[in-house]
Amino acid sequence: MSDPTCSILLVDDDPAVCTTLGDVLEVMHHQVEPAHSGHEALAACQRRVFDLAILDIGLPDFSGLELVSRLEKSHPEIEILIVTGQASYDHAMRAVSRSTIGFLVKPVDFDRLFAITAGVAQRKHLARQNQILLKNLQAAERSWESTFDAISDPIAVMDAKGRIQRANGAFHRSFGAFVGEVVGEPASRVLFGRPAAFPQGFCSEIGNTPLVERRYDLATPGSFEISCHSAEINKEMGVICIVRDVTQRAEAELERERLIHQLEEQNAELMRYAYTASHDLKSPLHTIKGFLGLIETNVKTGKTENLEGDLRRVSEAADCMGHLLDELLKLTQVGRVVNSPEEVALSSLAEEAVDLVFSELGESRPEIVKVTPEMPVVYGDRQRLLELFVALVENAVKFLGKTSRPRIEIGVEHRTEGPVFYVRDNGMGIDRLYHEKVFGLFDQLDPRYQGTGIGLPFARRIVEVHGGRIWVESEGLGAGSSFYFTLRGHCELEPVSGRASAWPSPKRDG
Fold first, then answer.
1. Of 32, 246, 296, 298, whose CB has the highest number of CB atoms within 10 Å?
2. Is 327 contained in some domain?
3. 510 assigned to some structural domain
4. What is the pTM of this model?
5. Distance (Å) of CA 372 to CA 216, 386, 412, 426, 497
6. Structural contact between residues 77 and 106, judged by C-beta atoms closer than 8 angstroms
7. What does the mean pLDDT of the chain come to?
């Protein structure tokens, strides 16, 4: 690598001196421009930039001292070297005191001249390199700032005490609305929404394992994964904290856990179903087998007077088994055999269910049943929703008991979580111990009442398929029962006849 060079303005009223010094300096590869007066020197400085000015004190238009003063004001980047004769030594010393780098006495010592110009060239070269490095550094900082701010995940840089030193745009957008200006705030207050939980700085407290924090007071509520990494910040150990929105992942994990729990419950229920079904199916089989044996014996002995009654018993037992199997098949089809969803007016659907129940009983509809006329219109499986109301109305009718003034009400309550539908009676009531048991398959609390015990499990399955839940409320025996249920998921409310409804949009479980 060659030695650095510089551009030199050579000012002397003696052309011979300019020529001699210029030739010597150009041998050292410096760029030299001569000037023979102060005005020529100032004009040259307007045309180009010089690193060094070598000037004589005695000039024809104004003194070298005045030129030094003007150059210091108009071109402070130029270094100045005074060349003077012995007679002007005192003037040269005054010039040196005016921020020049030194002086040379004529005749010039070339070795010293070379040393001075080499030093100037080296300084200017280093200054230019520093300027380049500074520009590159500033460009790198701008690039880093742009990248830092463009990252979609919130990022904060903290000192060792856990106070935020800087944060990117995503961090300000997510947490700024909650806390205002985040810089200078304790990170634990910003990230966790509470006073500093870790007074010594929370990085060491958190460790290397990311935390998942659920926040619903932010501009973008949800679940956030917070991870911390140690880093040297301003010559001290600090923390870089990365916050990642994992709301969808957290919801997927919750949904997975819910499905696993549901599957476990269904498997356990299936085992109970299998045991109970085998038990209940064996009863009519024993009846059929017993009477067939009796019929065979009586036929052989010629005792046929009871044959008709025995065959009727066999037929009734077969019908019972067939009905039980049909009910089980219907239960297993809920959720698998899906009818096309449609708009369903629940009030008219409930009226239809009441008519079906009492027509099957061979009775006209009594006045004891009241249906709220203003229930919402939903979008769902109409056939299944009809079966839901039929099952609940059948249950209410069955357990009215001997109430003096029986009453069945079907309607809706508008609660904070949305519409809650109900089928209510003032009949026998249910002890609190059995509020959940009534939805178990074949769980008949009172064996005196006929039925397969599948109605309420069937109703629960329909509600679950529609994304809702069902439960019973009763103060106990003799206090009547209220079966409540909700409809969510794909069962959304649709406006009817241009009238907007109060049905809320489906919400994610929090």
1. 32
2. yes
3. no
4. 0.42
5. 37, 16, 7, 17, 19
6. no
7. 77
Q: What sections of 48-197 are H helices per DSSP?
A: 64-74, 89-96, 110-150, 169-179, 187-192
In a domain, 253, yes or no: no
CA distance 423 to 474: 12
Which tens digits make up the pLDDT trace of 436-494? 777 775 555 454 445 556 778 878 888 888 888 889 888 878 788 899 999 874 344 44
Of 356, 348, 344, the C-alpha closest to 397 is 356
List the domain range (segments joined by +) for residue 481.
Answer: 342-485
Q: List all residues 6 or more positions away from 453 whose beta carbon is below 8 Å from its beta carbon.
A: 441, 442, 443, 444
Same domain, 197 and 293: no
Q: What is the reported pLDDT for 37?
A: 92
Higher-confidence residue: 5 or 497? 5
Tracing tokens 């409809």 back to the chain, one arrives at 487
CB atoms within 10 A of CB 364: 8
Neighbours of 126 (CB within 10 A): 11
Domain count, the chain: 4
Tokens of 244: 């990642």
Q: Quick one: pLDDT at residue 3?
A: 76
Query: Is residue 215 within a helix (H) or strand (E), and if so which, with residue range?
Result: strand 211-215
pLDDT digits (tens, 9 = 90+) for 161-199: 778 888 888 888 777 756 667 888 887 778 776 655 444
